[in-house]
Write a structure and sequence with these properties.
8-stranded parallel β-sheet, Immunoglobulin-like, 19% strand, disordered C terminus, TIM Barrel, 30% helix, alpha/beta, 473 residues, binds ligand FHN
Length: 473
């Protein structure tokens, strides 16, 4: 009986070994480089925290209205929602004169808002390119503007100290090789031409604009792209060989099994996780704080390109957006806020206002944003903790005020709260009430609780006894 039991155990052990081996697939074209990256370029990406997204192209001219009819869908999808024939859409190129385009002014608005990086659509789904590309005629050179719009943009933003990144859509409604799926040899051959075209253009962008810091990919959800994991792996390699330090979004990638973002062995692809589009992770998600990620956000519900009518959906207030920035940073994320410049090159007044208002908050409180991340402390209802790992300072970003007028802080075992003060007034210590060994109330004085505000905490870590003894010997 004992013998039988042992052999049963052996069989079970053998089987479980097989199962364990089976779950680890051999993935050749999954994650390209080890993550999380710790090189200087990646550290900078991580420290930047607040970015500006720019969707600009021919769709900004009709701005969601075609032949007097307003379409509620995303303005940059108007060609599809209004069923505009391709040749007709292409005529818009003659109206792209953008007489109000002033990249220095755009960069000044972004700087005032406090952004440290920008991501601009070099080519969206309609295939129109903002730079003079040697691989297509459907580009800025064919417009009345003629000049290298993207080059001027890169120069202006770089001069303003803002890192420039490029958005690039693989999905291309104009390219004859684009396919949603690959069902035949003809499809495969056609899609091959689209892949070649994309690779050429991406390498061309890196060569023309060596200042570019990273790439953000879109239109990579199609089956055709998922069937070509090896190609996207090799493309990532080719781009990084040309520009070491380049930071690419996980949206770029699929592995050879067609898995996107996270490869078949559960490893992130690209350099950061890029699935948070118009949404944020739950107020507290431990797992997400362990990876680099970014959230991209619209001001209206779902408009990226310029839409004439912003009365069609809720428009997020500067306050809502500011809270989202902090929410992202508290969980180790970057926040990329979208702007859709107008067809004439101007920035709409609502976006100017938002940039100004967020800028006011950032001006006073950006110490709690740049270079900051999760604090490791338990989230409280008044808002979000952030922490600067270099200085060790912890920030309480208050967005909801408790009626008792006191703000609860629960530290970790071995930590002591030494001091709390309002940001910018760090010489004036706030009153602290200690409730238990690690729980405190911070009691701010003379603070306008109608607006969000930030409290800086100085926390002392008690040295562990073991360490202390070791240091004495
Ligand atoms: O279809 C696009 C959309 O127009 C916009 O560019 C957004 C930005 O994240 N990306 C796609 C939808 O996921």
């Amino acid at each position: 009986m004992k013998k039988q039991f042992l052999s049963l155990l052996l069989i079970l052990g053998f089987c479980s070994g097989l199962v364990a081996q089976d779950t680890k697939k051999e993935v050749k074209y999954g994650q390209y480089n080890g993550l999380p990256r710790q090189d200087q370029a990646m550290q900078k990406w991580r420290e930047n925290r607040l970015g500006q997204f720019i969707h600009w192209g021919l769709y900004a001219i009709p701005g969601g209205v075609w032949k007097d009819k307003t379409y509620e869908g995303a303005a940059e999808w108007l060609q599809i929602s209004a069923k505009v024939p391709r040749e007709e859409w292409e005529q818009l190129i003659h109206d792209f004169s953008i007489e109000k385009y002033d990249p220095n002014e755009w960069a000044a608005i972004a700087k005032e808002m406090g952004v440290k990086y920008v991501t601009i659509t070099t080519k969206h789904h309609d295939g129109f390119c903002l730079w003079p590309s040697k691989y297509t005629e459907f580009d800025i050179e064919a417009t009345p503007y003629k000049k290298d719009l993207l080059g001027e943009f890169v120069k202006a933003y770089t001069k303003a100290g803002i890192d420039v990144n490029f958005y690039y859509s693989i999905l291309d409604w104009r390219h004859t090789g684009w396919r949603y799926d690959v069902k035949s040899i003809e499809d495969a051959e056609a899609f091959e031409t689209l892949m070649e075209y994309s690779k050429n253009q991406l390498l061309e962008l890196i060569e023309r604009y060596p200042e570019v810091k990273g790439f953000w990919f879109d239109g990579t959800w199609d089956k055709s792209w998922k069937l070509n994991g090896k190609f996207s792996y090799e493309l990532e390699k080719a781009m990084k060989d040309k520009s070491p330090g380049l930071v690419v979004s996980s949206r770029m990638r699929a592995d050879e099994y067609g898995k996107r973002h996270i490869d078949s062995n559960g490893r992130l692809m690209g350099d950061y996780y890029s699935v948070y589009e118009r949404r944020l992770p739950l107020p507290w998600d431990e797992e997400i704080t362990k990876m680099d990620w970014e959230c991209c956000m619209t001001v209206p519900e779902n408009q990226w390109g310029y839409h004439q009518d912003w009365s069609l959906s809720h428009i997020k207030s500067p306050l809502e957006l500011t809270e989202m920035i902090v929410h992202a940073v508290s969980q180790n994320g970057n926040f990329l806020l979208n702007f859709g410049p107008m067809g004439n090159g101007d920035i709409r007044k609502e976006e100017r206002f938002i940039a100004k208002e967020i800028g006011k908050w950032m001006d006073e409180n950006s110490e709690a944003i740049y270079g900051c991340g999760p604090s490791g402390l338990q989230k409280q209802d008044w808002g979000y903790f952030t922490k600067n790992n270099k200085s060790g300072k912890v920030y309480m970003n208050v967005f909801n005020n408790p009626v008792i007028g006191k703000y609860r802080v629960k530290l970790k075992k071995g930590q002591t709260l030494k001091k709390a003060s309002l940001i910018g007034k760090q010489s004036e210590a706030l009153h602290l009430e200690q409730i238990s060994k690690t729980v405190y109330f911070v009691v701010p004085a003379n603070v306008n609780t109608k607006d969000p505000f930030v409290i800086v905490l100085e926390i002392e870590e008690k040295e562990s006894r073991k360490f202390h003894q070791k240091a004495l010997t």
